[in-house]
Amino acid sequence: MAFSLSSSPSSSTFLLILFTCFLFLCNAQHYHRHPRFAHHNYRDALTKSILFYEGQRSGRLPANQRLSWRRDSGLSDGLAMNVDLVGGYYDAGDNVKFGFPMAFTTTMLSWSVIEFGGLMKSELQNAKEAIRWATDYLLKATAHPDTIYVQVGDANKDHACWERPEDMDTPRTVYKIDKSTPGSDVAAETAAALAAASIVFRRSDPTYSKILLRRAMRVFQFADKYRGSYSDRLKPFVCPFYCSYSGYQDELLWGAAWLHRATRNPTYLSYIQMNGQTLGADEDDNTFCWDNKHVGARILLSKAFLVQKVQVLHDYKGHADNYICSLIPGKAQYTPGGLLYKMSDGNMQYVTSTSFLLLTYAKYLTYAHKVVTCDGTTLTPKSLRIIAKKQVDYLLGDNPLRMSYMVGYGPRYPKRIHHRGSSLPSIQSHPAKIQCSSGFSIMNSQSPNPNILFGAVVGGPNEHDQFPDQRSDYEQSEPSTYINAPLVGSLAYLAHSFGQL
């Protein structure tokens, strides 16, 4: 069914027509393939969006580390459980390694490369290195059958400190899921991440790709066999930070969808056919983020129908279309400046994920010569690309404040981001240890962060397009790995479209 904006079909159609016309009028002058029409340097933004991940690295840093203000950290992670959990990423501005958002970040970085890696040119290798930094860790976290180590660090104690990752002395407690403490959500997301990454490395490193795929299959089997939400048993440790609010059904469908794409094994297609409805395939839930994969699964499975002609998945085209129609103003909320607005905490993650899905779905529709129909009005693939570009351009500075929400991009960007390593003096400039509570004087100050975390995209403005640029305001000023991950793909597409790559 198509979404309606009111009880009157005519008013729905009128609003949609107005919206479509507005997008074309406002963006047509910029939407050409010739570089002189691009008023943003998408290539520069792409480079920085990937560079950001070097600032989030945990573990022993490589010789080619470009963000030199970071140093080795977390070198004893996993020691308490006699397991090697060194490496991976800190999720945001803290020093905890949360497996759930890290796995989603990996899936989305991989999807960005799968769809648009061919356009990335010199940045492709950097993107692959960002993915491999995560998958190497996820392989460690899943080394033991029917067990996944899903978190390193006591989040409550970590958040009571403001210290560099190189200095952290809070407990590096390890939390795991297993047969008696199931976590289908984080397990299936981990399977999705490994499966998606296996596609990324299929040609460049086939041996590594096979290792990733075999592990993905094993992890998914564990996720499906021992069902339950990881935050049910681990609630005191993972909530309210990364509770699984949407349940685990969406991740099971998402994981199966990625394994189907990676293997073309009919077993996964049968699983999707048999379980799709019970796992929420047709739910009118139009949120896509680290916790909720319903929309992503719909778009991903629509490709199998549109491009690969898997007829039994024809319903997913309708499910994906419903999502596109839900983005119409009146159904979705936008700020006065035109930014998609879902919620106050880390809203930019919804902006970047939506933009990526729009560009990806437009790619599938173009291949299949299909369109989207919303209340009788047609949206072409070009329409979807215009909507996506408008959101990315807002993020890069086309907004009422004329501020880029990507650190280090453009003349004006957030200077006081909620990020410990960026806000405190580096080891190079201040070798002495900064104790747990000593850093709060800096956190609460108005001084700009001394270390520029290039490419970090913050939570973004509020519903009125306002942004205070305060370190204490984590909802608006904190970056995260999962905000950037889908943006990598969108920027690659835009940079290529405007002749910058």
From TrEMBL:
Listed under catalytic activity are: Endohydrolysis of (1->4)-beta-D-glucosidic linkages in cellulose, lichenin and cereal beta-D-glucans
Q: Which residues form the signal peptide?
A: 1-28
Could you tell me the keywords of this UniProt record?
Answer: Carbohydrate metabolism, Cellulose degradation, Glycosidase, Hydrolase, Polysaccharide degradation, Signal
Report if keyword Hydrolase is assigned: yes
The catalytic activity of this protein is classed by the Enzyme Commission as: 3.2.1.4
Q: What is the lineage of its organism?
A: Eukaryota, Viridiplantae, Streptophyta, Embryophyta, Tracheophyta
* Superkingdom assignment: Eukaryota
- PROSITE patterns given in the database record: GH9_2, GH9_3
Family statement:
Belongs to the glycosyl hydrolase 9 (cellulase E) family.
User: Which terms under GO biological process does the entry name?
Assistant: cellulose catabolic process
Coiled coil residues, start to end: none
Protein name from the UniProt record: Endoglucanase
In the UniProt entry, which residues are flagged as the active site?
418, 469, 478
Q: Where is the Glycoside hydrolase family domain?
A: 42-490
**What is the enzyme's class at the highest EC level?**
hydrolase
Q: Which GO terms describe its molecular function?
A: cellulase activity
